[in-house]
């Protein structure tokens, strides 16, 4: 029998800017509400960034995270996953601030340096509410998102070794799988581990189904199908098709306004829960079931919500 599908929801992220959608959660209260609603709709993992409540700019400060992490924990049983991606341009120490303070069950970790081009959004969006938004997008034409072997090791040893946090290993290209494999061979990553395959970011893998199938095949060859869980996210209009394909292939998936602001062609999603409900309907129409948080914890070998720092 196929296993149930783990849904991750990423409610706000650090890529889209507030002017792009009135529904993008910005304040701690909005992020908490979006997360709780997504969990109620069927997400068992919530992947979290923070934003400055006044400007919507990505915010690494633990004190901002502290305004919504306990609220989410108290209202849901969902796994809280604190991003270490932060916002483009942050140092690795800034990116780790919130996770090392919160000691969560999970944290995301990017597995390689890439050109991270979101500047093409300037062709679509011309008016901005805040002064930081246009320069933020413009700078990515000449920007490398750095994730070196040293910084990856630092994050694994700091969060994994000192806090017992497990990772959502974000892989934007084939080479990132081999980086995961290198750390597995060094004994720093132990099964069961969680691979998040990322498609559709300019500078990373294109949103092509052949790429998804190839990565899944290579991951099985590198790790063995029983040693890891895999999930898929795709940016923008590719979100739902790739989520569906992952479920069909026996994988898990991620949705949320971090990855796409839309629910259909030209139609803004009015909430993260709307996307979760849509993909849950697809999963169940395929004859599959959605994993509850307890099952996600067991399959991913997490330490439990009673051992976090919030």
UniProtKB/TrEMBL annotation:
The keyword Zinc applies. Its cofactor is Zn(2+). Keywords: Metal-binding, Transferase, Zinc. The keyword Transferase applies. Pfam families: BKACE (PF05853). It comes from the Bacteria. PANTHER family: 3-KETO-5-AMINOHEXANOATE CLEAVAGE ENZYME, 3-KETO-5-AMINOHEXANOATE CLEAVAGE ENZYME-RELATED. This is 3-keto-5-aminohexanoate cleavage protein. It comes from Roseibium porphyridii. The lineage of its organism: Bacteria, Pseudomonadati, Pseudomonadota, Alphaproteobacteria, Hyphomicrobiales.
């Amino acid at each position: 029998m196929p296993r149930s599908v783990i849904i991750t929801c990423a409610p706000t992220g650090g890529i889209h800017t507030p002017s792009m959608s009135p529904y993008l959660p910005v304040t701690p209260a909005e992020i908490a509400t979006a997360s709780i609603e997504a969990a109620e709709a069927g997400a068992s993992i919530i992947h979290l960034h923070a934003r400055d409540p006044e400007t919507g700019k990505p915010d690494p400060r633990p004190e901002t995270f502290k305004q919504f992490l306990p609220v989410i924990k108290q209202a849901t049983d969902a796994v809280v996953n604190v991003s270490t991606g932060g916002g483009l341009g942050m140092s690795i120490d800034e990116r780790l601030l919130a996770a090392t303070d919160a000691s969560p069950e999970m944290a995301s970790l990017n597995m390689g340096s890439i050109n991270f081009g979101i500047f093409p959004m300037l062709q679509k969006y011309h008016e901005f509410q805040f002064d930081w938004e246009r320069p933020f997008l413009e700078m990515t034409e000449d920007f490398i998102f750095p994730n070196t072997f040293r910084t990856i090791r630092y994050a694994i040893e700091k969060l994994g070794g000192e806090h017992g946090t497990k990772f959502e290993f974000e892989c934007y290209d084939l080479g990132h799988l081999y980086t995961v494999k290198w750390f597995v061979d060094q004994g720093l990553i132990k099964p069961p581990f969680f691979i998040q395959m990322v498609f559709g970011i300019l500078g990373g893998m294109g949103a092509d189904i052949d790429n998804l199938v190839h990565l899944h095949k290579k991951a099985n060859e590198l790790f063995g199908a029983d040693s890891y869980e895999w999930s898929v996210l795709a940016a923008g209009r590719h979100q739902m098709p790739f989520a569906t394909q992952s479920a069909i292939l026996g994988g898990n998936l991620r949705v949320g306004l971090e990855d796409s602001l839309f629910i259909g062609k030209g139609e803004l999603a009015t909430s993260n829960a709307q996307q979760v409900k849509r993909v849950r309907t697809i999963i169940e129409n395929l004859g599959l079931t959605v994993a509850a948080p307890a099952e996600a914890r067991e399959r991913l070998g997490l330490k439990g919500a009673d051992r976090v720092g919030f």
